[in-house]
Structure formats: structure tokens, C-alpha cells
Amino acid sequence: SAVISQKPSRDICQRGTSLTIQCQVDSQVTMMFWYRQQPGQSLTLIATANQGSEATYESGFVIDKFPISRPNLTFSTLTVSNMSPEDSSIYLCSVEAGRGRASDYGYTFGSGTRLTVV
Amino acid sequence: DAKTTQPPSMDCAEGRAANLPCNHSTISGNEYVYWYRQIHSQGPQYIIHGLKNNETNEMASLIITEDRKSSTLILPHATLRDTAVYYCIVRSDSNAGGTSYGKLTFGQGTILTVHP
Fold first, then answer.
1. Is the C-alpha dihedral spanning A112, A114, B107, B73 positive or negative?
2. Interchain proximity A42–B87, CB inside 8 Å
3. What is the pLDDT along chain B (116 residues), one digit of tens a residue?
4. What confidence category does residue A102 fall into, taking pLDDT thresholds of 50, 70 and 90?
5. Are A106 and B46 a contacting pair at CB < 8 A?
6. Is B54 within 8 Å of chain A by CB?
7. Best of A3, A109, A113 to disrupt the B interface by mutation (most B CBs within 10 Å)?
8. B105 contacts in A (CB within 8 Å)?
9. Please, are residues B101 and A99 in contact by the beta-carbon 8 Å criterion?
10. What is the pLDDT of residues A39-98, one digit of tens each?
11. Contact status of B50 with chain A (Cβ, < 8 Å)
12. A103 to B108: CB separation less than 8 angstroms, yes or no
């Protein structure tokens, strides 16, 4: 299955600033997914990124706050913009290798970026 | 998206089988059931998935009822390292820009504590 490298692993940021999180996959994948996990909570899907098209956002998440880039089939970034303490969470990327391969291997998750906004 | 219901917590003695139930009564005919676990401060780890038939791999077994409205994850010989949050997920079909894909919607999961 795919191996994901996510950077940074953690960061402490000042409110009002922005942070860009990188997700690198060791193989080409069709879809990449970005999740948020607030303290003590489950994972919530933010958006789905397909190479060459605009990301699809879930209800409650907007592009101005969480812009996403997907320049190629192995890389994506998520930016958390104009941060506030409420944005303190773990942000994770995940990949689906493709319809057929996803049935074989499941979905792989990165180790996450632990963000603290002060 | 089909929702799942799991007990918030369970205990299991080390060496015994851990049986984690999940209710997914609104599942559609072509939706898969996935199980993941998350150990503190790590990304979710894939365990197993299935559609209709029971499945087994080196980590666990998945028992899906005939009507597909519920399932049970079985860890045959639980160890202390199996202490984690276990998520039962129904993968729903979605489409973005003409590309179909599966979307995972996480519920609250079950906190499994394995004790000596």
C-alpha cells in the first residue's frame, strides 16, 4: 500500500497567521483526502483533492479558510488560513489508490500534523 | 452517507478475543464496511474491510450479518498493544469532477482497553 509523508509533524502558530501542510505519497494516486481531528474527537473530512481540478469541500469547510493544492498525482498541500485557537487540531491526509486498488488495500493515512494556535 | 453506531468503550482481558460490534442499518447494497484503529497520537491504521462475506486477515476477522445491517470485528487474541480507538466506517460513493471515489465518514468509535 502507499506510504505517506506529511510535514510538518507539529507546529505552534500565532493567531492570524497561516500554515501550509504538505502531503507526499510514494506512488501516484487519484484522490487525496484531508481530515481534521479536534482534541478528543473523531476524524472529520475537510475536502477531497483530485489532480487537475478544484477540491471538493464538505459541509462546514470553505476554500478561503482551507485552500488546497493538488499539482500532481503524488503531492498535495492544505493551508489553514487566518488561524484562531479553534483551529488547534491534528490534520491528516489520506489516499485512495484507485477504485480497484482501494478495494484491495484500504485507505492509507499520514501520521498527521499536530497544530496548536496560540 | 450511511452512519455507524458503536459502543463508546469496551474492555478485554489480554489473550482473550475482543469482539467489537457495529450497527450500520442504513447501509446500501454496494457500500463496503471498513474497520480502522487509532492508537494515541498516530494516524488511523487499516484493519480490514468487507462487503457481504466474512473476511479474515492476519490482524482480525470481520463478521457481517446476512442483512448487512451490522458487523463485528474480532481480534482473536488481544494484546496490550491492541488498546486503541476502533472505528467502524461505511464507505460511501461520491463523485468529483467526473471521477468516482469512495469516501470514509468516521463515527465516534469504540475505545478498546486491553488489560493484563
1. positive
2. yes
3. 668 999 999 999 999 999 999 999 999 888 899 999 999 878 999 899 999 989 999 999 999 999 999 999 999 999 999 999 999 999 888 877 777 788 888 989 999 999 99
4. very low
5. yes
6. no
7. A109
8. 45
9. yes
10. 999 999 999 998 878 899 999 999 999 999 999 999 999 999 999 999 999 999 999 754
11. no
12. no
Q: Does B99 touch chain A (CB under 8 A)?
A: yes
Q: Are B62 and B71 in contact (CB under 8 A)?
A: yes
**Residue with cell string 460513493:** B93
Task: Report the relative pairing of strands B9-13 and B110-115 from DSSP bridges.
Answer: parallel
Q: Report the candidate in B33, B26, B15, B8 with the shortest Cα–Cα distance to residue B80.
A: B15
B50-82 burial, b at 16+ Cβ within 10 Å, e below that, comes to beeeebeeeebbbbbeeebebbbbbbeebeeeb
Would you call B14 exposed, middle or buried from its count of C-beta atoms within 10 A (0-12, 13-18, 19+)?
middle
Report the amino acid identity of residue A34: W
